[in-house]
């Protein structure tokens, strides 16, 4: 098994289509460290804060702490190795034990050898982790957060999970269904040649978690509301009204107008002949992406 398959095959709890991106976030953090400073050890006490922020920003609201991947990833076939002042192996999953024992983790020796011999493998590993666990709108944010630079890495292709391929028609079908308007704010815009700008097709149930490339799993959203939807600031109720997380803080008039004012608002679209978002996809997004409780509409 090559290192790409090994990393793509890390064990994660996905029961009921749930998200548990702790291990991918730790590996992306480790790849960022490797790219910047080589294959040195990563002390848990040093990584705890950054990993906590990554989990807070990119994992479901119910997600556990950074101790979970730091300890459990060592069980995945040489991908991650942990030792401490007590010797080889993790001292346990307790954050206190990891701190007090001076626990350190590092990428497995076979992965390190491959990355040193073939630097072009690093962006492939990163893209596999990103594509298999997160929506594309979040990839650049995650890379910035972990210090990964993939811009000039020569990446060309990522193997699709289980042989699935994204349907290139999805974007066009969703934009047409919503008549080229953002379903949340009504924004629409085109260049002189007619091409839509600032609009995209957002998956409600993420593609990486068996979300279909179908109109009943899509929303036409502007760039701002697409990002906020994938970050869990915005969501949908079972009645297909817009939900705004009460955890979102925005004090300016722009934030109030572009986010707070959306609470309880009806969607713009889809067109009468198109299929609306399925309630099971809405429930998945609310459980796995949306943060906290919805704000009470003004």
TrEMBL record:
ScoMcrA-like DNA sulfur-binding domain span: 2-149
Protein name: Phosphorothioated DNA-binding restriction endonuclease
Pfam families: DNA-SBD_ScoMcrA, HNH_2
Keyword Oxidoreductase: no
GO molecular function, one term: endonuclease activity
Superkingdom, natural source: Bacteria
Domain annotation HNH nuclease: ranges: 182-235
Keyword line: DNA-binding, Endonuclease, Hydrolase, Nuclease
Native source species: Marinactinospora rubrisoli
UniProt cross-references to InterPro entries, sorted A to Z: DNA-SBD_ScoMcrA, HNH_nuc, PT_DNA_restrict
Keyword hit for Hydrolase: yes
């Amino acid at each position: 098994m090559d290192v790409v398959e090994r990393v793509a095959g890390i064990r994660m709890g996905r029961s009921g289509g749930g998200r548990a991106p702790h291990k991918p976030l730790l590996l992306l953090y480790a790849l960022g460290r490797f790219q910047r400073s080589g294959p040195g050890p990563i002390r848990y006490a040093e990584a705890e804060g950054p990993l906590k922020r990554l989990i807070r920003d990119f994992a479901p609201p119910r997600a556990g702490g950074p101790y979970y991947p730091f300890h459990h990833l060592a069980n995945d076939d040489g991908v991650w190795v942990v030792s401490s002042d007590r010797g080889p192996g993790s001292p346990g999953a307790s954050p206190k034990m990891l701190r007090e024992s001076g626990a350190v983790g590092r990428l497995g020796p076979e992965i390190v050898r491959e990355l040193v011999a073939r630097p072009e493998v690093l962006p492939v590993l990163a893209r596999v982790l990103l594509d298999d666990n997160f929506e594309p709108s979040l990839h650049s944010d995650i890379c910035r957060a972990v210090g990964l630079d993939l811009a000039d890495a020569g990446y060309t292709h990522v193997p699709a999970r289980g042989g699935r391929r994204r349907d290139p028609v999805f974007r066009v079908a969703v934009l047409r269904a919503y008549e080229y308007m953002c379903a949340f704010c009504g924004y629409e815009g085109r260049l002189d040649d007619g091409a839509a700008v600032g609009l995209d097709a957002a998956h409600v149930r993420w593609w990486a978690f068996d979300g279909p490339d179908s109109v009943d799993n899509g929303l036409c959203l502007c760039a701002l509301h697409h990002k906020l939807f994938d970050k869990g600031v915005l969501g949908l109720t079972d009645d297909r009204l817009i939900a705004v997380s009460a955890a979102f803080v925005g004090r300016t008039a722009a934030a109030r107008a572009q986010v707070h004012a959306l609470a309880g608002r009806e969607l713009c679209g889809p067109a009468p002949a198109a299929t609306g978002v399925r309630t099971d996809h809405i429930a998945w997004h609310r459980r796995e992406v949306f943060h906290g409780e919805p704000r009470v509409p003004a």
